């Protein structure tokens, strides 16, 4: 098994996004003036396993629109096809796409691939809710053209510390697990590498490893208590299994993957 970090541009976010206030200010601060972070990577992931090439998320495109709390820095030569080519891989070889959640910097690159895509069934329900449809119009953040992933049902029982899961390969070495919080239907993908380590492609379960260690719910979660419960489950899993933890926007994720650095 080989796992590749694909970087499809960068994003800068409000400090209040990374370090939210408590109470009513948690989300309000995202709309108010405030300091910005340094550029953070927009990672997606390619997994070569047996004869298949699986993508976890598809990254962003240069058409991304800024919002009050995020400013995107994506050039055409950073989009998914070029990112794959830089890893010596081809768009035509992609067999399937698994989406951690529906936000644009994780799904917009779907416009580049004809491979079938899946997203958790609970996330599809969340996307379809009237308030979510309204917010996408207000923020000018539409789903990409042709967005029609199939529902991924986590009916495989517990996996490690996670109560809901589903194997994505017959040998059980690639598994989707429920990590709700950032969005209600968020999933992460865990790969059991050739050394038996768990490589957790965590999407936006947290923005960074520091956030996980600090047990800090993010600024956009509809349910901070649920998010904290997920962080506890991830920490428990990392204590039970040697785990390389890879959030999509952590500047150290690619380095941890390359060095096989586990959470300690």
Q: What layout of secondary structure does this protein have?
A:
Elements: E1 2-13, H1 15-18, H2 25-28, E2 40-49, E3 52-56, E4 70-73, H3 80-86, E5 96-98, H4 104-107, E6 117-120, H5 121-128, H6 130-138, E7 150-152, E8 165-167, E9 174-178, E10 187-192, E11 198-201, H7 209-214, H8 224-240, E12 243-246, H9 253-259
Parallel strand pairs: 3-5, 5-6, 6-7, 11-12
Antiparallel strand pairs: 1-2, 1-4, 2-3, 8-9, 9-10, 10-11
Fold and architecture overview:
It contains nine helices and twelve strands. It has a single domain (2-259), classed as Metallo-beta-lactamase, Chain A, CATH 3.60.15.10. It has helices at residues 15-18, 25-28, 80-86, 104-107, 121-128, 130-138, 209-214, 224-240, 253-259; strands at residues 2-13, 40-49, 52-56, 70-73, 96-98, 117-120, 150-152, 165-167, 174-178, 187-192, 198-201, 243-246. The two termini are 23 Å apart. A seven-stranded mixed β-sheet has the order 4-1-2-3-5-6-7.
What brief labels describe this structure?
single chain, 264 residues, alpha/beta, Metallo-beta-lactamase, Chain A, 7-stranded mixed β-sheet, 5-stranded mixed β-sheet, globular
Summarize the entry for a quick read.
The chain is an alpha/beta fold. 25% of the residues lie in helices and 24% in strands.
Query: What's the mean pLDDT score?
Result: 96
| Structural class designation | alpha/beta
Major sheet summary line: 7 strands, mixed
Strand elements, count: 12
CATH architecture: 4-Layer Sandwich
Q: Which range does the strand content fall in?
A: 15-25%
DSSP helical segment count = 9
**Strand order in the sheet with the most strands:** 4-1-2-3-5-6-7
Here the CATH topology equals Metallo-beta-lactamase, Chain A
Gross geometry: globular
Which segments are poorly predicted (pLDDT under 50) over 5 or more consecutive residues? none
Give the topology string: H per helix, E per strand.
Answer: EHHEEEHEHEHHEEEEEHHEH
Measured between the Cα atoms of the first and last residue, the distance is: 23 Å
Helix content: 25-40%
Radius of gyration: 17 Å
CATH class: Alpha Beta
What would you give as the CATH superfamily?
A: Ribonuclease Z/Hydroxyacylglutathione hydrolase-like
How many structurally independent domains?
Answer: 1
């Amino acid at each position: 098994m080989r796992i590749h970090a694909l970087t499809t541009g960068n994003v800068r976010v409000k400090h209040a996004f990374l370090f939210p206030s408590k109470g009513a200010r948690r989300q309000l601060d995202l709309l108010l003036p405030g300091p910005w972070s340094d550029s953070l990577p927009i990672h997606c992931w390619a997994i070569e396993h047996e004869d298949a090439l699986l993508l976890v998320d598809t990254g962003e495109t240069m058409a991304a629109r800024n919002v009050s709390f995020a400013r995107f820095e994506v050039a055409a030569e950073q989009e998914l096809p070029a990112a794959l080519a830089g890893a010596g891989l081809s768009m035509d070889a992609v067999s399937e796409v698994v989406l951690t959640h529906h936000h644009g910097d994780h799904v917009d690159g779907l416009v580049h691939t004809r491979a079938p895509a899946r997203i958790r069934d609970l996330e599809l329900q969340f996307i379809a809710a009237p308030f979510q449809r309204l917010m996408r119009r207000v923020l000018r953040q539409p789903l990409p053209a042709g967005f029609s992933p199939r529902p991924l049902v986590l009916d495989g029982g517990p996996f490690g510390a996670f109560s809901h899961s589903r194997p994505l390969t017959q040998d059980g070495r690639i598994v989707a697990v429920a990590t709700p919080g950032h969005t209600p239907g968020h999933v992460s993908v865990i790969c059991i590498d050739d050394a038996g380590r768990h490589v957790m492609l965590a999407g936006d379960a947290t923005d960074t490893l520091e956030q996980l260690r600090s047990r800090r719910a993010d600024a956009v979660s509809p349910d901070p208590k649920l998010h904290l419960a997920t962080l506890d489950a991830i920490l428990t899993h990392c204590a039970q299994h040697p785990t390389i933890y890879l959030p999509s926007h952590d500047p150290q994720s690619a380095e941890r993957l390359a060095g096989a650095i586990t959470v300690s």
